[in-house]
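sry for the spam today, last one i promise. struct tokens for design, 101 residues
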């Protein structure tokens, strides 16, 4: 469980930082534990919603120079989560990440 909390903390930090830095608006963070009726695993879901303009991760993917110390946040989210994605909301965008508990 210690690895889960470390990964969840890092993902929350990255997504909240992106919301503040790129959205430029206050953000809402939601954390939920889902216990699916099918399948053996529980899922922790983290959502960060802001009212910024949003963006598509796939359209902004590019190699990051080693000397650049920013720009790796979503790569970390992708590596540490079991699933993640973005989507528009009525007032901006939502970024979500799921981890198996």
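last one done:
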């Amino acid at each position: 469980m210690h690895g889960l909390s470390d990964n969840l903390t890092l993902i929350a930090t990255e997504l909240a930082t992106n919301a503040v830095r790129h959205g430029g608006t206050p953000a809402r963070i939601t954390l939920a534990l889902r216990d699916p009726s099918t399948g053996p695993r529980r899922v922790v879901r983290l959502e960060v919603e802001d009212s910024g303009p949003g963006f598509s991760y796939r359209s902004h993917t590019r190699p990051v120079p080693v000397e650049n110390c920013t720009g790796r946040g979503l790569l970390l989210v992708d590596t540490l989560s079991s699933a993640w994605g973005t989507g528009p909301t009525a007032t901006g965008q939502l970024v979500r990440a799921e981890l198996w508990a």
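Helices lie at 2-23, 73-80. ok im logging off now
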